Amino acid sequence: MLSAVRNNIRSYSTAVKTLKIGLIPGDGIGREVIPAGKQILEALPAEHGLKFEFQNLDAGFELFKKTGVALPDATVEALKQDCDGALFGAVSSPTTKVEGYSSPIVALRKKMGLYANVRPVKYVEGTGRPVDMVIVRENTEDLYIKEERVYEKDGQKIAEAIKRISENATNKIGKMALEIALQRQAVRELGGTSLHSKPSLTVTHKSNVLALSDGLFRETIKKLYDSNPKYASIEYKEQIVDSMVYRMFREPEIFDVVVAPNLYGDILSDGAAALVGSLGVVPSANVGDDFAIGEPCHGSAPDIEGRGISNPIATIRSTALMLEFMGYPKAAAQIYAAVDSNLAENKIKTPDLNGKSTTQEVVEDIIRRF
């Protein structure tokens, strides 16, 4: 998929292509922002040669409370058989154990083979700290395999969780991160704006404590990097996760592509959103070898549900990111540029960015910039 993106940067077909996109609103404001992504796709100029069909699909905690199923088999099958890509809204996952429930987005990543969560964090001039990085998070293992147990010893409860790092999964995420570094450099060479003059990869780990599990993660990616001459233009770096957090907030401009195991990547990517003002503007995509699901990072936000003020920008940027991984970088670039223009003007914005605009007003302002 990544090679297709880089090829299309230089060779772009204008033949009309119809793409079927699955829409999975989920819970809370997911039901408000996913329609924004749909509107953006429908409004793309004809010059991109893209038409869209949409399939509404179910998943989420609210669905679980009604049916006892958080991720229906029909949703997974529709994505596999009928859809070219998808957008996922949000999940209201409970903080305490609910018998029979597990996160549908975690399950969906595994069932669809979406082993990478890709989250770009880029500032627009005048709107935050100078930052232009992509956090690439392994999506299928680490502590998120959810193999836990509770037992008693000496009259005390003890809870344990298994942390799993495999060579196979690490090779896949390492290759994804390295390819993204090359892809970003290709865009720069075509005139794309960036804080970086050359590509770099920072491998984040805690192998000074977890010598076997995190040690395998760092060793596997280093071996992959060393074994392929095509990656020679990428500067290889490593960072212990706690110092990574410190440096990310102190000097975020030094990081280009960051790759991390599941838990560290989850924490780093949410924290990085603070550098650009709000989770409401940061996109992500769950990516595999032949499928991508765009997913905003902000959660279901029940405190603002139904008020029409949720920020649609994370979803709109996630929509562009989905298109990018599907092999349509020019359409994605036009969406990114329209969003950047909206943010730079700093007038039509939702309350999380200290504005007074509605979700729909932001959508319409971005569309008029196409």
Automatic annotation (TrEMBL):
The keyword Cell wall biogenesis/degradation does not apply. Pathway: Amino-acid biosynthesis; L-lysine biosynthesis via AAA pathway; L-alpha-aminoadipate from 2-oxoglutarate: step 4/5. GO terms for molecular function: homoisocitrate dehydrogenase activity; isocitrate dehydrogenase (NAD+) activity; magnesium ion binding; NAD binding. SUPFAM superfamilies: Isocitrate/Isopropylmalate dehydrogenase-like. It comes from the Eukaryota. It catalyses: (2R,3S)-homoisocitrate + NAD(+) = 2-oxoadipate + CO2 + NADH. Residues 20-366 form the Isopropylmalate dehydrogenase-like domain. Keywords: Amino-acid biosynthesis, Lysine biosynthesis, Magnesium, Metal-binding, NAD, Oxidoreductase, Phosphoprotein. The keyword Oxidoreductase applies. GO terms for biological process: isocitrate metabolic process; lysine biosynthetic process; tricarboxylic acid cycle. Its EC number is 1.1.1.87. Pfam families: Iso_dh. Transmembrane segments: none annotated. GO terms for cellular component: mitochondrion. Its cofactor is Mg(2+). It is an enzyme of class 1 (oxidoreductase). Belongs to the isocitrate and isopropylmalate dehydrogenases family. PANTHER family: DECARBOXYLATING DEHYDROGENASES-ISOCITRATE, ISOPROPYLMALATE, TARTRATE, HOMOISOCITRATE DEHYDROGENASE, MITOCHONDRIAL. This is homoisocitrate dehydrogenase. It comes from Komagataella pastoris.
